Amino acid sequence: MTEAAPSELARDAEWQRLDPRMLLVHPIREVLRYLPVIVVVVLGSTAAGGEQWQLIGVGIPVGLGLLRYLTTSFRISAGRIELRRGLLNRHVLSTPVDRVRTVDLTSSPIHRLLGLTKVRIGTGTASTSDEDRIDLDGLPLDRARALRVELLQTSTADDLAAPEQAEVDVVTFDPAWLWLAPLTGSGVVIAAAALGALSQLLQTTGFFESFDTQRVHAPGASPAVLVPLLVLAVLVVISLLSIGGYAVTNWGFRLTRSRAAKTWHLTRGLLTTRETTLDDDRLAGVTLSEPLGLRLARGARLSAIVTGLSKSQQGSSMLVPPAPRRVVERVARDVLDTPAPVDVDLLPHGPRATRRRWTRALLPALVVALGCVGAVVLDAPSWLLVGVLAVPVATLLAADRSRSLGHALVVGHLVSRSGCLVRRRRVIEVEHVIGWNLRATWFQRRAGLTTLVATTAGGSQAVPVLDVPEDEAVRVAHEALPDLLAQFTR
Questions:
Q1: Which end of the chain is more exposed for a tag (fewer CB within 10 A), N or C?
Q2: Degrees, nearest 5: CA angle 342-344-349
Q3: CA nearest neighbour of 466 among 444, 484, 488
Q4: pLDDT tens digit string along 88-132?
Q5: pLDDT, tens only, 316-342
Q6: What's the rounded Cα separation, in Å, for the pair 466 and 423?
Q7: DSSP structural state of residue 339
């Protein structure tokens, strides 16, 4: 009989370095990082006639890259993951294996060329510093995938004895989703960043100083025609950049599920690929987000509420990028293993909550409108009358916010919906609720309303039910977790 191959965790029990092929990656990264300094050194040495300084300018970053590899090591031993790095300032990270929440595999183009990947182990830490992240950069792709599976296994002995099970596709990328990209806030941000970078480049090269507007002629064109054409051109450019950013980030998107391993696996990326695996036992719920633009196009996106995963790590909890709403709802039903929280009709919060929505929207708008009218009466520019539009806009927002408000408690799940510019439907299993908070401002107390907050250890750490009547808040909390509130209701 042949001996079974040792597990990946057993293989990593001793201190070891990362893959030797990183000796090619680290120097290139350091050269790119110090590229502006290298350019200055090369130009300065060329002007001074000293070629040896050019070699030093390139050699120092290369040496730093080699030292980065030689001073980084890791091991997984005695139920702990330990990462050691640094030459002068030694930095050692150590965390228990049972604290692992997610494992992300990210492969840049140079990683993919060499068959490597970076393993980012998410442990739910609140720190945002790169120095406090456990990144194994890089490991061979096959070895990284094996390590990911073992880190997320709840019972190593059982999983090693069980045969491998194929993953089942839940949803895959559809090129038809690309048209939704310009309707998302992230798409607009990507486009704005690209336009800003282009503007800085043109300004640096002196393009705007040398550009003579007098040479630009449009025979027969008036400002009434040129302005709409310019706006249309800007919108087209922004849309194309948004679509490009969406494609680069989400091309090849694939979400699969392994019921045997109790994991969800997500792959996406065109140039830089990213693989994320979520443990099903730590998946506490989902958030279905509908930014206003997506909602008008009947689109949405879906993210997971993962126990131990903070809001700052939301990139690791994304389940479906902006896509048609029917697709997002179908995936949400699969993730929750029940359609009820997605399809249930939510309970309204009553006329007092609706009145608060209208009051908070209309009062500021009326102040702005009256101020603009008063300014025009006092001989201010007439274009200030545009402030009057704040009233109809606030009316539409108030009506939409009132319709969005609702909640439900169904088949062991708490459902809460609120928002206007970004409407969110949050669904969380009551088993993952670790406490209740009832918060009320002075105005809420006057109206007999409160905000019921279900605290949890995942996502933003809270699922709020806004402006719910006090008796309804107590009823929901008691029915969800009777033992938790029993001591206060006797």
A1: N
A2: 115
A3: 444
A4: 777 888 888 887 877 889 998 888 888 999 998 877 665 556 666
A5: 678 999 999 999 999 999 999 999 999
A6: 13
A7: S
CA separation for the pair 10, 76 (Å, rounded): 8
Burial class (CB in 10 A: 0-12, 13-18, 19+), 191: buried
Residues near 408 by beta carbon (within 8 Å), at least 6 away in sequence = 341, 344, 345, 346, 347, 414, 415
Q: Counting Cβ atoms within 10 Å, is residue 197 exposed (0-12), middle (13-18) or buried (19+)?
A: exposed
Which amino acid belongs to residue 56? I
The predicted structure's pLDDT at residue 158: 42
CB 306, CB 317: distance < 8 Å: yes
By the 8 A CB rule, do 359 and 444 touch?
no
| Calpha distance 178→417 (Å, rounded) | 27
First to last CA, the chain: 66
Per the prediction, the chain carries an average pLDDT of 81
Contacts of 103 (CB under 8 A, 6+ apart): 119, 120, 121, 122, 147, 148, 151, 152, 276, 277
Q: Which residue has the higher pLDDT, 486 or 457?
A: 457
CA distance 257 to 280: 9
Tens digits of residue pLDDT in 194-229: 666 666 665 665 555 555 555 555 555 566 667 778
Least confident of 29-43, 188-202, 294-308: 188-202
**HSE on the CB side for 364, CA within 13 Å?**
9
Which residues touch 277 (CB under 8 Å, ≥6 apart)? 102, 103, 104, 148, 149, 152, 263, 264, 265, 266
pTM recorded for the entire structure: 0.80
Element (H, E) at 57: helix 52-70
Where in 400-455 does DSSP place strands (E)?
A: 406-410, 413-418, 422-429, 435-439, 449-455
Which pair of structure tokens corresponds to residue 161? 């004895």
- The DSSP symbol for 153 reads -
Distance, in Å, from the CA atom of 291 to the CA atom of 299, rounded to the nearest integer, reads: 9
Give per-residue pLDDT as tens, 271-280: 888 988 888 8
Query: What is the spatial distance between Cα 462 and Cα 433, in angstroms, rounded to a whole number?
Result: 9
Using CA atoms in the order 29, 71, 11, 130, what is the torsion angle rounded to 10 degrees?
-60
Q: Which two tokens stand for residue 86?
A: 């640094």
Residue 128 per-residue DSSP state: -
Sequence spans of domains, the chain: 175-250, 350-401
